[in-house]
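I am still getting used to backbone structure tokens and would like to learn alongside you. Would you supply a protein for us yourself, any chain you care to pick? Start from the sequence, derive the backbone structure tokens from it, and show both lines together. Go ahead whenever you are ready, and we will take it from there.
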Amino acid sequence: MKSSKNKIINDPVWGFIEIDSDLHMRLLEHPYFQRLRRIKQLGLSSLVYPGANHTRFEHAIGTMHLVRSALDVLKAKGTKITPDEEEAVMAALLLHDIGHGPFSHALEQSIVQGISHEELSLLFMKELNDEMNGRLSLALDIFLNLYPKQFLHQLVSSQLDMDRLDFLKRDSFYSGVSEGVVSSERIIKMLDVRNDQLVVEVKGIYSVEKFLIARRLMYWQVYLHKTVISAEYMLIKLLQRASELTSAGQVISATGNLSLFLNKSITADDFRSEDREVRKKALSHFASLDDADVLITLKDWIQNADPILSNLSEGLINRRLFKIKLSYLPFSERKLNKFKQLSVDTFKINQDEANFFIIDGEITNSAYDAEAGSIQILSRNGKLKDIKEASDINLEGLTKTVRKHFLCYPGDILTR
């Protein structure tokens, strides 16, 4: 349904974006969605790239804009798409990230353990559908890949979906990392549908190759930048420490809604409860959380008597981050124990508490996972080939999962 009050949004990446659906306007104006203005798209990446302060709000609108363009292209090439389907797939993309918590991926599984942002997004969509008397039922079917036209779901979630086409270009724009620039508009122009599957005409193959290469480079240079990893794990450890102290009966100051989650007053079970009021209450409290809650709380924790909370909070607020080492091989127990003992001596803590200062783990990067769905190239003779077969360059390096181990530690322990 067309809206009686069209809205024009001036987006620095895509230009003017028109909102002309009553359903999309209602979603855009809902507090659940407005909250995304206060959630950074790239979490703590601005500690490395100062311009990377854009939000989930503008990304969501960008994906909706791109899918409108894709739908127009597909309809012009003869694919039958109804107005209801068009409105629904745009709504699905508008809401695809609505379940992200503060600082996006950085605190996933930290605020609420045992539940992903994808599941939370689905729960928010279902609640909104109830509020809007079923207006999002078709959008939910497309989101969950339950709708007969599978290509509509692929526009929302696939190896070449509108989410990726927006965030690569948007994150490149705001971070200033030019390796992430992709020809999103050209890829969209080359889209078509065969056998109910989204495909790319062979004329767009070089743009797809560039897209895969850009995805790999952006992960190493931005999303998995070693300093970003250090900052994210410091924040994760901070919340773990606060939750541990709270469980032990200590009163730890925090904003009201953050306290509920630190106290585990709200758990994953509440979000999955069969009682709608319990679910709605949990969603409401989660929807009241944003980056500001965490930042305000961290500023307060700098003065906390606990040396772990105080030190980690001061380090994040004033960008005094842990050093980090990367390796293709796991770090030895001997090295880890040495660093833990140094932290015990430096900060006057016990061996268990040293785990909050010495952090080891692993990161992985795979630009193209054919098992999770392929990118099909449509040749001029009408045959389909996977991008790996159709490309005249070796894409094996992009399909292989690269695994790196990391070790984070306070630089102080090596200088005192």
User: Anything to note?
Assistant: Strands lie at 2-11, 15-21, 191-194, 197-201, 323-327, 359-365, 376-378, 384-386, 402-409. The chain is about 50% helix and 10% strand. The CA atoms of residues 52 and 174 lie 5 Å apart.
